[in-house]
Write a structure and sequence with these properties.
mainly alpha; single chain
Length: 366
């Protein structure tokens, strides 16, 4: 028996020893595994399979953190996966990917997307996805009746000048008028966002093939004993209805357990645009527990300032002048158009109309 063991050991050593170091082999194999999970994530995203997507995301997260994995292309794919994760959770406003609890999934996705411009060959496609992300960041809040969240998105947009000015102004008007089903929002719908991102993924995968391990696995699967697989299928079909129900019950239990585990995962690094030129993005989302630990480090006074609502401001002579000029230019009753021309500090069209009545009664309109 001893010689046989030595022979096997020598066989294994023959794969390790030679002109190529095993560390290099490990790096290549790890890259293949990352590529396979990248393709899997793209496929789950296209299919809209939420649980399968999250399961693949966990695996990719582990692979992407290995020390043997190096290369800009791998970092790029990890960044794309982080982007897809945020879009996948885009309608879940309580899901957090960053320390700032005001940054919702689609807002975080828009930040990452702005750093993926070099991966998009078609400039118009990049612009379209950018607009879709911004519009849906607001639209999702309005759909769920979260007007304050929609306002937070607008403030965030004002602090990020790289986003189109016209879109920001348009969204501000829609939020002010609370038009949840405005034609502009409908034309840049969430379903259109998903379809456009799928177009981007198809073009990216065509330019950057990541299917080496996938093709190898397909060849191996095809070479397996088909008859054996048919026997398994036959045996499965002969199971009683009671056994099937029991199996389904176990599957549902497993799914629920998996989902709870996903919801309790922690983030190791957050998006840090101010601290490094080439930021690392963790695909996985941040848990409520970790968020509470982060926010607990802030002072109570800071939290109170953040949550304190600004009291209504009085009409100033400058605002009255804006209103008069707007009516003179657009005519009485065209409040939405006037709002686009001047900064009325968050006031609505109804507020403009009421103020105009006050000015008319006090004969201050000349």
């Amino acid at each position: 028996m001893e010689p046989e063991i030595n022979n096997k050991t020598a066989t294994v050593a023959s794969y390790i020893d030679g002109s190529v170091r095993f560390a290099q082999v490990t790096a290549v194999a790890t890259g293949w595994m990352l590529d396979f999970m990248f393709v899997s994530l793209c496929r789950r995203f296209k299919e809209g399979k939420f649980d399968e997507f999250n399961e693949a995301l966990l695996t990719l997260q582990a692979i992407s953190q290995t020390t043997s994995l190096k290369g800009d292309l791998h970092d790029e794919k990890t960044m794309i996966c982080a982007f897809l994760a945020r879009v996948m959770h885009g309608k879940q406003l309580d899901v957090l990917f960053e320390e700032d609890d005001h940054v919702m999934p689609l807002m975080s996705a828009a930040k990452i997307w702005s750093n993926l411009e070099h991966t998009v060959a078609d400039e118009s496609l990049f612009t379209t996805i950018t607009i879709l992300l911004l519009v849906q960041s607001v639209a999702v809040c309005l759909e769920k009746g979260k007007l304050s969240s929609a306002s937070s998105v607008l403030k965030w947009l004002d602090n990020n000048n790289e986003f189109p000015q016209k879109v920001r102004v348009k969204l501000s008007t829609i939020v002010t008028r609370r038009e949840t089903y405005h034609p502009f929002l409908m034309s840049f719908s969430f379903s259109r966002l998903l379809e456009t991102i799928q177009t981007y993924l198809d073009a990216y995968l065509e330019k950057n093939p990541s299917d080496y391990l996938l093709k190898a696995a397909e060849m191996m699967a095809q070479s397996q004993n088909i008859e054996g697989l048919e026997d398994v299928v036959t045996q499965d079909s002969s199971l009683s209805e009671e056994a099937n129900e029991s199996t389904e019950g176990r599957k549902k239990t497993l799914c629920l357990r998996t989902k709870r585990k996903l919801l309790s995962t922690k983030i190791t690094d957050a998006w840090k645009p101010d601290t490094c030129k080439k930021a690392f993005v963790s695909p996985r989302r941040i848990s409520k527990n970790e968020l509470s630990q982060m926010t607990s480090r802030k002072s109570t006074d800071t939290l109170k300032i953040t949550k304190t609502r600004k009291p209504p401001q009085k009409w100033t002579s400058q605002l009255d002048k804006y209103l008069k000029d707007g009516v003179k230019h657009h005519g009485q009753g065209k409040w939405s158009r006037i709002l686009l021309d001047y900064d009325f500090e968050g006031r609505t069209g109804t507020m403009l109309k009421d103020r105009w009545r006050v000015l008319m009664k006090s004969d201050k309109v000349g």
